[in-house]
Every structure is written in C-alpha cells, then in structure tokens.
C-alpha cells in the first residue's frame, strides 16, 4: 500500500511520493520489492493514489526486478482497509501478504508465511517487540500466539508487541471488507474479525522495524541501511560508513560519516563534514560546510562554511555561505537564503 501523501516529510513529498524518496541509494520502495523477490514472491500489486503515475513510470511491469507488478489507483481516500479492498480484483492467490509501503523492516517474510500456514490462520499479523510501546497500538496474544484484542495507545500497555504493518490475509477476508468507502483495518476490520471468531494470529519477533514517516526516522532508516544495521538485498557487499554514487565528486579532506548517502552528480567541496545525512542527486556543497542529521534534496546548493543540523532542504533551494540552520528547519523548494541570511550565533 503506497498511496499516502507523506505530509510529515514535506517539502520532500511535494513532488515525490514518500515510498519513492531516495533512501540508501535507491527509491525506498525498491528495498521492499527486493526483499519480496528474495522471499520468492513474484506477483506484486501496488495500491497507489498520490502521484500514482510516478510508480508505473519507474517500475513499469516489474520485469527488470524479476517481478510482475500491477497497479490499482485509489481515486478517493479509502483508509487502510479500503485500500486493501480496492486491489482485491488483482489478487491471484488464496493467500495475500499486505505491506505498509513506508515501513522499513528486517522481518523474515517466509517465517511470517510459515506461521500463517502452521496456525491455519485467517489473518496473521507481524508484531514486533519495542522498548517503548506507549507510542503505538498494542496487540496482545495468548500462549498459542492467537490475538486477543487490539488496543489504542495507552500509558500502561499490557504488552510490548505492536502492529508492524505487515499482514497475511486469506483472500476471502479481503472480499468481505466493504468496497467503495473508507475503512480502517485497525479500528474496524481487525476488531470485527475477532468478534466473528476468526483465527487471527501474531507472528512475533524483535526484528528491525522503523516507520519512515518523519524526517528523523527517514534519515536514521537510510543510515541504518547503509551501515548494514537494516538489511536490504540491494546493498549486499556495499555497506559501511557512507554510500557514494560513482558519478559524485568528493574533494580532498571531506569526511562522510554515520551512514551518509551521496547521490548522482553531487559535488562536495574540500573540508566538508557530512554526518548521518541523505544527499539527493545533483547537489552542490561548497567547501567547509558542516551538515548533520539532515536531508538535502536534488539540485540544492549549500554555501561555503554553512552549518546545517536536523533540517530538510527542498529541491533547488540555495543556502548561502555561513548560514546556520538548526532544529528541524524546512527550506522549501526554490527558496534562496542569502549569505549569512540565517544565523544562531553572532556574526564575527
């Protein structure tokens, strides 16, 4: 399911759907598709909505990845359940595995499918254990792994198991979701299945899991892929402190740390330090700049000796020399900040 607008990541998502943002050298969705292919699954249906044409233009019929990809466009917001129901007519098999398209996961997909078969489940949910479940909906299970209830966020959760956004459905259950209207699987479909006595099980593990919806999570997820903390078949043998496209120009004395990514045609001047940052294609960073925990969009220019920390710089934006940008600032596409135009310290 890749239909969301990605509003929390604006301005990155003004022109690009969130699942197509460059992440560790590839559009994010490509990492998920590579994991799907590695698990032996070859037929994929993408439920799209916002900027739907971008997906088909990039992936086509999927043959370059060894997949067969079909597309279903959501013309009106249908929610998590309605979006799943909307692709029903394209499903070919009695079992369908559904993915939230903006989750970075290290789960073993074949193990989840094995649990589904072994339990003869109607629905199997991937549940991941987290250190602080208070920020998420919790899903308790009994000693046999059967789901007992679905809980909203609570200050005193009874379990550390949360919904990880990956589900295995018997196809017949998807047909029963109401068509043509917004439906929430979390608030409507799943509780109803429990009421009806359906066999709903959890596949519980402590695998890598991250919702890529916020700037900080996006940066961390990309860095974890580059460093091999999160696994992607696309990066086998390529992990390390940084990932630099062969066409990029990185001058002497540049430090690239913390899983930094440097995109195609980007130029980084001498003496720069870039830490835990995602740099898209065609960026120019002039000498002496220091950038950390940030995202620099395609075509942006960063002036000499600028300091940027925890920011998003939009497409084609220009940050002047000696500027200081901190604390979650978002520079929208095409904006020009003059030399020393923004500073947090006195200009000396």
TrEMBL record:
Upper classification of the organism: Bacteria, Bacillati, Actinomycetota, Actinomycetes, Mycobacteriales
Gene3D superfamilies: Hexapeptide repeat proteins, Spore Coat Polysaccharide Biosynthesis Protein SpsA, Chain A
Lineage: superkingdom: Bacteria
One annotated GO molecular function: translation initiation factor activity
Enzyme class name: transferase
Family matches, as SUPFAM superfamilies: Nucleotide-diphospho-sugar transferases
Protein name as it appears in the record: Nucleoside-diphosphate-sugar pyrophosphorylases involved in lipopolysaccharide biosynthesis/translation initiation factor eIF2B subunits
Annotated ranges, domain Mannose-1-phosphate guanyltransferase C-terminal: 240-328
């Amino acid at each position: 399911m890749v239909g969301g607008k990605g509003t929390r990541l604006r301005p990155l998502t003004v022109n690009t759907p969130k699942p197509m943002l460059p992440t560790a050298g590839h559009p994010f969705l490509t990492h998920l598709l590579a994991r799907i292919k590695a698990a032996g699954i070859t037929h994929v249906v993408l439920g799209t909505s916002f900027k739907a044409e971008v997906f088909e233009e990039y992936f086509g019929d999927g043959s370059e990845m060894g997949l067969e990809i079909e597309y279903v466009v959501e013309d009106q917001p249908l929610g998590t359940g309605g979006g799943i129901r909307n692709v029903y007519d394209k499903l070919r098999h009695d079992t369908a595995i559904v993915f939230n398209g903006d989750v970075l996961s290290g789960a073993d997909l074949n193990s989840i499918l094995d649990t589904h078969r072994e339990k003869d489940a109607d629905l199997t949910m991937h549940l991941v254990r987290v250190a602080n479940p208070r920020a998420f909906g919790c899903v308790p299970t009994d000693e046999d792994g059967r789901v007992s209830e679905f809980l909203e966020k609570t200050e005193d959760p009874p379990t550390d198991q949360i919904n990880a956004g990956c589900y295995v459905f018997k196809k017949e259950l998807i047909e029963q979701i109401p068509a043509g209207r917004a439906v929430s699987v979390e608030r409507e479909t799943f509780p109803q299945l429990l009421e009806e006595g359906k066999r709903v099980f959890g596949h519980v593990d402590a695998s890598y899991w991250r919702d890529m919806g916020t700037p900080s999570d996006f940066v961390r997820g990309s860095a974890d892929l580059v460093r091999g903390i999160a696994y992607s078949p696309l990066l086998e043998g390529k992990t390390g402190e940084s990932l630099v496209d062969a066409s990029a120009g990185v001058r002497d004395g540049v430090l690239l740390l913390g899983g930094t990514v440097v995109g195609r045609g980007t130029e980084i001047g001498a003496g720069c330090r870039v830490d835990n940052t995602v740099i898209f294609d065609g960026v120019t960073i002039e000498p002496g700049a220091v950038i950390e925990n940030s995202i620099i969009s395609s075509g942006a220019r960063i002036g000499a000796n600028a300091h940027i920390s925890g920011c998003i710089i939009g497409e084609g934006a220009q940050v002047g020399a000696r500027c200081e940008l901190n604390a979650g600032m978002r520079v929208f596409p095409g904006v020009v900040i003059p030399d020393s135009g923004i500073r947090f310290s006195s200009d000396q």
